[in-house]
Amino acid sequence: MDTYAALNDVLVNLFRDIMELEEQAIITQEYQDITNNDMHVIEAIGVGEPKNMSTIAKLLSVGTLTIAMNSLVKKGYVIRERGKEDRRVVYISLSEKGLRAYRHHEEFHRQMIEAVLENLTEDETESLVKALAKLERWFRRTEEN
To answer: How many CB atoms sit inside 10 A of residue 143's CB?
Structure first.
């Protein structure tokens, strides 16, 4: 198999497998009422200061979040509050249920990274990080066009 075919095969399978594994690991009995996409919205909201909708949309590279946000509020994962100084601004934060989901998702990612790094040398790890960073830059450029 030539390099092109090998890389194409690895990338296509890797993306598909990560999405499938993540969905299986994340959407457990406790979180069966949300989708993998919902979990990524929860991840973008994060555990720090509340964020406004446009900040979250930028983190996710999407135009609108209203439908997903309404669903997460209704299910009790997200709290929506108007700004104290400017009532037009809506701030989003995670509820206690949302924080538990966030930590559950974070644990999946921690385990995935540990498994990837487990058998790599320091040099291999550095090369992998550099190669994936270049790949990410290419995807971000493609996304912007």
So the answer is: 8
